[in-house]
Structures are given as C-alpha cells and as structure tokens.
Amino acid sequence: MAVLELINISKHFGAIQAVNDVSFSLEAGQVVGLMGDNGAGKSTLVKMIAGNFRPSHGTMRLDGADLVLHRPKEARQHGIEIVHQDLALCNNLTAAANVFLGRELRRGVWPFCILDHKAMYNRAGEIFRELKSETRARDLVKQMSGGQRQAVAIGRTMLSEAKIVLMDEPTAAISVRQVAEVLNLIRQLRDRGIVVVLISHRMPDVFSVADRVIVMRRGRKVADKQIAASSPEEVTGLITGAIEQV
C-alpha cells in the first residue's frame, strides 16, 4: 500500500493556478525526484504535503486514510518532514542543539527541570552514526561543511520516525565531494524505509539516487516514470516543453 497518495490535487491563488489536477503515490523506501522549471509548481505541491498550504481541490491520503493538514506541525506529527534549501540551522549552536531545536530533552521535574545536554549529544551522535556521517554532535554548525550541515538537517527528521522526507535542492551550492556525501545520506534514509522526495535541478543527482522521476510543467504533472525507463534528455525535453507529455 502507498504511504502517501495525492488524488487530483490543485492549488490556486486567486486567478493564478499554481498546481492543476496532480495525482501520484509514494511508496516506502523509494526516492522520487521532483523536477521542473521555476514556476512549474514543485514548491507549491511540496508545501501542501508539508502542511504550509491547503489544497484548493483534491484529496491527500496517508496510509490509506484521508489527510487534512492545517499547519506544518500537523504534518510532522504524521511523520512528514521537510529539509528546506536554506536548512534553517542556527550557526551559533552545536549539531546536537540543532537536531533537538524545539524538541529539547530535559531532566528533573517542572519547574526544576534542566536541559539534558548529555542525552542530546548521545542521541545526536547515534543518529549521525546511523547516517554514516562524519558530523560530530558537539561541533558548532558554523564550522561545518555543506554536507555536514545537510546531515544535521536530516538528523532532525529522524527524531520523529519520519515516513516521508521532502528535500528542497539539497545539493545546490556545495562541492562535488559534499554532493556525494548528501546523496549517500539520501540512500541511508531510503534504506530505512523512508520515502524521500528530492526536488532538484541537478539532473546527475536525480539519476544517481532516485528510483522514479516526476516532472511538472506549468502546474501540471507531465511525466511519472521509473528512472531506468527514462533519460536526462527526455526529462530535459519534458521540462522545457520540447516533449509534451509521456
């Protein structure tokens, strides 16, 4: 059974139709590349899944049950996490503090409880080891590489036993070595049975790590294919409109 189903999802902002009648399903342990030019509707679609926007029309189903989200917090409660392009990290805090930001562990009894830094360092360290990342829990984020920062952002998603992780341009503006590190992090999530939706303009990254590719143009889905049955040339044609639809 599909983890998430989108059925005839549309979103309009006044007269602007950002997403138009899009349907697809996501299955556990699958990496799905979401591609399209700027303004194709990718970000709006992902924000509906993440609870930032409510669809104007259509239905979302999670594990077979109808899913209605009013805010991102509700999406996280259902196991849907998003890693934003800017990562939303606090540079002056440690990796562990960022992983637990807003979900800090405490010990003691209210009002005499204090932050349990040791427990947070230990759990964050376990997460980074599970991800096979060199990131260290006590290091400050401002001293980290782009790949290590991605590991911190992904580590946050693993606190809540995420079912779906939405990743917005995770390999933009980082070095080739760091790109390889981030793609390995995505594979680690997939191997844990998590659905990863990878929004990217980088064709080699999508074809390296994704199982499927969904292409959007002008708010509509124009392709949903297994990576093995497509090619970078075909996807480029679909994005630009040289190929209408497959």
Automatic annotation (TrEMBL):
SUPFAM superfamilies: P-loop containing nucleoside triphosphate hydrolases. One of its GO terms (molecular function) is ATP binding. Residues 4-243 form the ABC transporter domain. InterPro entries: AAA+_ATPase (IPR003593), ABC_carbohydrate_import_ATPase (IPR050107), ABC_transporter-like_ATP-bd (IPR003439), ABC_transporter-like_CS (IPR017871), P-loop_NTPase (IPR027417). Keywords: ATP-binding, Nucleotide-binding. It comes from the Bacteria. CDD domains: ABC_Carb_Monos_I. It holds the Pfam family ABC_tran. SMART domains: AAA. PROSITE patterns: ABC_TRANSPORTER_1 (PS00211), ABC_TRANSPORTER_2 (PS50893). PANTHER family: CARBOHYDRATE TRANSPORT ATP-BINDING PROTEIN MG119-RELATED, SUGAR ABC TRANSPORTER ATP-BINDING PROTEIN. This is Sugar ABC transporter ATP-binding protein. It comes from Rhizobium leguminosarum bv. viciae.
